[in-house]
Amino acid sequence: MIGTSFSLAADKMRVVSPSKVDAAKLRVRDKAASEWMTEPDLKKNNEAMAAENKQLVYFEYHVGKDKWRAIYSDKIKFSGFSWWVFYGGNEMEAKVNVEMSKGLEPAFVVRSGNSYAMLFVRPEQMEDIKKILDEYGVGQPRLKK
C-alpha cells in the first residue's frame, strides 16, 4: 500500500482522546450525512459514492440504532487512505499504530459506546481534510507516544 513511514510511527502511539465532535454542528452533519445503515451497506455505499467521485470524509456509529452513516465530499480525492471500524479501545489503538507505520495519519477517531470509526490519510492531505472536517465540527484525535 504505502511504503513511506511517518516519523511518529516508529514508536507506539496511544490515543489520549478520540476526536471531539461538536454538538453545535449536529444539524450540519445531519444534513450532509447518508441515511443510517448496516456496516455491509456502508461498504457498498462507499463504493457507489466513489464511482460518483465522492470521497468518504466522515462516518459514525449510533449505538441505539446499531447502524452507521457517512458524509462524502467532492472537494477532495485522497491519494491514499483507509477507513476502519473497530470494537474496543485496545484494538483501536493497535490499528492506529499499524496505519501510522504505513505512513498514514488519523484524520479522526470517533467513539460511540465501545465502537470506533477511524479515517487515515497521507500526511500531505491532512490540512485539506482538517478544513472539511472542521465544517462538520469534527476534530483530530490527540495522540501521545
Can you describe this structure?
The chain is α+β, with helices and mostly antiparallel strands and 145 residues long. It has one domain (7-144). Helices cover 30% and strands 30% of the residues. The strands form 3 sheets. It has a 3-stranded antiparallel beta sheet, sandwiched between helices. It has a two-stranded antiparallel ribbon with strand order 1-7.
Total number of helical segments?
Answer: 4
**Main sheet: strands, sense, barrel:** 3 strands, antiparallel
Run of helices and strands: EHHEEEHEEHE
Rounded to the nearest angstrom, the distance between the terminal CA atoms is 24 Å
Radius of gyration: 14 Å
Low-confidence stretches: 1-10
Give the rounded overall mean pLDDT.
Answer: 90
Placed side by side, the strands forming the largest sheet appear as 4-6-5
Count of discrete structural domains: 1
According to DSSP, the number of beta strands is 7
